Amino acid sequence: MIKIIDNFLDDELLKYITTEMLSENFTWFFCDGKSFIGDDHIQFQHHFYNHNTINSKYFDSIALPILKKLNYKYIVKVKANITSKYQTIINHQLHNDVDLDCNTAILYLNNNDGKTIFENKEEVNSVKNRMVIFPSSLKHAGTTHTNSKYRMVINLNYI
Amino acid sequence: MNKEIIVKDNHLSEKKMSDLENFLLSNKFPYYYNINIAGEDTEKTDTSMFNHILIYKNEEYSNVGNMITNIVMKNIPHKNILRSKVNFYLKSDTLKIHEFHKDDEDEKINIALFYINTNNGYTEFEDGSIINSVRNRLVLFPCKLKHRSTTTTDTRHRVNININYD
Predict the structure, then answer these.
(1) What ipTM goes with this model?
(2) What does the alpha-carbon distance between residue A128 and residue B79 come to, in Å, rounded to a whole number?
(3) pTM given for the model
(4) Hey, which bits of chain B come out as E strands?
(5) Residue A54 pLDDT more than 90?
(6) B135-153, pLDDT tens digit by residue?
(7) Sign of CA dihedral A72, A74, A80, A81
């Protein structure tokens, strides 16, 4: 049910993506919630694609190559999340990204001790260039992390 | 407290303050990741921040740069805005205190710091003066005074606007 693919992107593309996303050119928007708005955690987000609309000038160079590698037919939502270091690991609230029956994929962009937890008790560690793919109906959540300045992922919902 | 540091509470009307606060925390206002705070060695520190440069080298750097800066600087005598930016610090479990620094080596420059939200973070000066982060508080001081910032532990974020002017 949960598929893990390590070394998902080639090194050059991965380096381009992480460099751009941490640069002064890449916009991040404050989100007052991690799993749900007002859940007492915050993150910054960058929407590549949402509500049937391309929302980012980086859609073609960052989101699309990843989607192509996932053999997508239809895009539901693609966004990036970045969170900062915390001193303890806290599990966020389990949730579904979307109501549609589709695939959810998470690409981890750096190594850290945060992880993705699932309602079936499985866990996936944040390993740089690891892709995890699972049915969108499977509830999941991120965690905080303690051993790197940031935790950055790209989250894709697609058919 | 150092007499060169001026503190003005309730700087903006409540309406203007609320509008500005809501805008800076909305999904209409972008931030940019900054791994380096006040010139710190990024390998030795574990804090990072987000910011948004409004004005840089006297020129508007963001399409809302002049608008936001003018709201804060209204009624503050000045000739030029040299740099203006929004700083967004994230909550940490323990208060992280950053390095003392000057924003610019030109001692003719003045600094305006405007606090967007109340939290237990603060601005500290080398002589020990501490200015607490209080919503709608404006602090004015000459650039020659070395200062440093902190994160916050009692709110999810600490947001302020830093303006260098002459």
Answers:
(1) 0.84
(2) 49
(3) 0.89
(4) 6-8, 30-34, 49-56, 59-60, 81-90, 110-115, 122-125, 130-132, 137-142, 147-148, 157-165
(5) yes
(6) 999 999 999 999 999 989 9
(7) negative
Residue A4: strand, helix, or coil: strand
Measured between beta carbons, the chain B residues lying within 8 angstroms of A150 are: 33, 35, 48
Tokens, residue B148: 């440093």
- Least Cα distance to A158 among A81, A79, A58 occurs for A79
Could you give the CA distance from residue B114 to residue B76 in angstroms, rounded to a whole number?
A: 12
Chain A residues whose C-beta is within 8 A of a chain B C-beta are 21-32, 40-42, 44, 82, 84-88, 149-150
Question: Under an 8 A CB cutoff, do A44 and B33 touch?
Answer: yes
Assign B39 a pLDDT band (cuts: 50, 70, 90).
Answer: low
pLDDT digits (tens, 9 = 90+) for A83-110: 988 888 999 999 999 999 999 999 999 9
Which one of A24, A31, A40 has the shortest CB-CB distance to B32?
A24
Q: Are A45 and A31 in contact (CB under 8 A)?
A: yes
Q: Which pLDDT does position A36 carry in this prediction? A: 78
Cα A109 to Cα A131: distance, rounded to the nearest angstrom: 9
Digit-coded pLDDT (tens) for B114-142: 999 999 999 999 999 999 999 999 999 99
Three-state SS sequence of B64-92:
CHHHHHHHHHCCCCCCCEEEEEEEEEEEC
CA-to-CA distance for B102 and B118, rounded, in angstroms?
A: 24
